[in-house]
Amino acid sequence: QVQLVESGGGxxxxxxxxxxxxxxxxxxxxxxxxxxxxQAPGKQRELVAAFTSGGTPTLVDSVQGRFTVSRDNADNTxxxxxxxxxxxxxxxxxxxxxxxxxxxxxxxxxVTVSS
Length: 115
Prior knowledge:
The protein has strands at about 5, 10, 20-25, 35-40, 45-50, 55-60, 65-70, 75-80, 90-100, 100-105, 110-115. It is mainly beta. It starts with a strand and ends with a strand.
């Protein structure tokens, strides 16, 4: 059973930055997919950024140039650096992993962008 624990959410003003971190209980090197999703109020959960087994990260168009996703295989962490935040980035952010054909989710961390 994989456990994913997020940290780093909070309240930030438009244009500000936040860094989210996801700590995994297993070696992320073994994960087929690992990354971040988000769910805004009244909307479906959507992919934000993820690494696949090929190693190159994918980011959704709406965060290109503002968000960066990184991984540390030694610490088993996946980080999401979010810059130039906008009100539309407000959501609960979830860490996600696919490992041995099973999906795993963290508990989520709230990110609120508001003045």
